[in-house]
Amino acid sequence: MSTSTAPPEPAQMDLTRCKRSQPYEIYCAKDFATPIKLSVGEYDGELPKPVRETVIGYFAEHLESGCLRYPSDHSTVTRELKEAICRYNSMLSEDQVILTGGSTEALRLIFDTYLEDTDKVLFPIPSYSNALNLIRLRTRRVDTVLCLGFDMLCQALQKSPYKLVYLSQPNNPTGYVFSMDEMELLADRHPGTVFVLDGCYLEFDRHYSVYAMNRPNVIVVRTFSKAFGLAGLRIGYLYSRADVVARLALLRDPHLPSELAKVAALTALASLRQYEAIWEELSRTRVWLIDALQKIGLEVNPNARGMFVMAGLHEGTNKELCDFLREQHQILVKPLKGEVFGLEEARYVRIGMAGKETLQRLVKAIGAFYSQERRGASQLFPADCRRANPDICASR
Questions:
Q1: Is 6 domain-assigned?
Q2: Which of 17, 100, 243, 389 stands the most exposed, by the fewest C-beta atoms within 10 Å?
């Protein structure tokens, strides 16, 4: 029997893997207090009326019965939501779908299922920082390689065999997109590699593909947080071939997502016409924003799709601009620097899409900070990611 009076020590986690010295936060306290948040790609519009009424009605109905119970995989709304997701993503069977507590849980589930400490992962950059954190908690062998399009990814895959490749689609933050044909080619060419397509922002590309290719080495992650505005309810899903999904289901958390989240997501999919009008307006607004930023001298990929616009300053640092916007105009944008973005120089920022009135305020504020002579076109966005974009062409 131990006679020690010291409290037990927690297990030691090697945080050097994810190069993290502080807890991962969406916002620090100062940023959370900033009224206009354009740093993480949050939905800033009004939810369609049916979705609002569903959430309010669910609480009213279930609180009258006395409590909010645990969710169930066998509830009617679970079955109906999976059926709706299958229709939405052109899949044949609900056994190809796992519901998750947002896309982050889906990514963790995939990485926990497939990765061991010695497995090698290709993580094309720029990309989503928390995905890199989650991968590094599973394996030390991660290659971060600059990739701004299909050809660059193919070149990276030729250099070494990889167990897994993570791809955000459209890319966060640059906005390039891989086509269905390109992904099928990669999956067939590298059958021993698992391709994880993080499609959180697909709806913001008007011509997006759902990547429902039914291959054993392709797993697609989706969410209701971004385009559907349900981030606070934490509901997402993943899909793949049925045998792959059955393997992933062994490690999923049965407590997630909540029944409320499922009901709201089901109503959202039944309200697609209203959401599509919102997405179409955001697509037009993105074209306007790119043009407005270029007119005041910022370097922007003219073919960017997705939830973000990445912009480069020709003078001053991104920290100086971000501090100015936050302190003087109560607007939050994200400075891009470091390994996950493939950027050593501190001159790039990421701007999340929002309503045009909000972005007009942003452009005016940047103009107040940045009034120098315009710079020429940069090579950050090479020809490989400057494909013809129907959104751009239609607007000119």
A1: no
A2: 243
Q: Do residue 84 and residue 212 come from a single domain?
A: yes
Cα–Cα distance for residue pair 285/363, rounded to 1 Å: 12
- Cβ neighbours of 133 (radius 10 Å): 16
- CA dihedral defined by 15, 20, 22, 23, rounded to 10 degrees? -80
In a domain, 61, yes or no: yes
366 is in which domain, residue-wise?
Answer: 29-46+273-395
93: CATH:
3.40.640.10
| pTM (2 d.p.) | 0.84
Q: Is residue 16 part of a domain?
A: no
Q: What is the number of domains present in the chain?
A: 2
Q: What is the residue type of 203? A: E
Tally the C-alpha atoms within 13 A of residue 280's C-alpha that lie toward its C-beta.
7
Q: Based on the domain organization, do 210 and 263 belong to the same domain?
A: yes
Q: How far apart are CA 287 and CA 102, in angstroms?
A: 29
Bridge partner list, 308: 352
Transcribe 84-98 into DSSP letters: HHHHHTT-S-GGGEE
DSSP secondary structure of 95-116? GGEEEESHHHHHHHHHHHHH--
Residues of the chain with pLDDT under 50: 1-4, 7-13, 372-379, 381-396
Residue 108 is assigned to a structural domain of this protein = yes
The per-residue pLDDT for range 295-344, each reduced to its tens digit, is 988 888 887 788 888 888 878 888 999 999 999 999 999 888 766 676 66
User: Is the C-alpha dihedral spanning 136, 141, 146, 147 positive or negative?
Assistant: negative
- Condensed to tens digits (0 to 9), the pLDDT of residues 94-124 reads 999 999 999 999 999 999 999 999 999 999 9
- Say how far apart CA 211 and CA 209 lie, in whole Å: 5
In angstroms, the CA 335 to CA 348 distance is 6
Distance CA 385, CA 302 (A): 10
Residue (of 372, 316, 368) closest to 346 by Cα position: 316
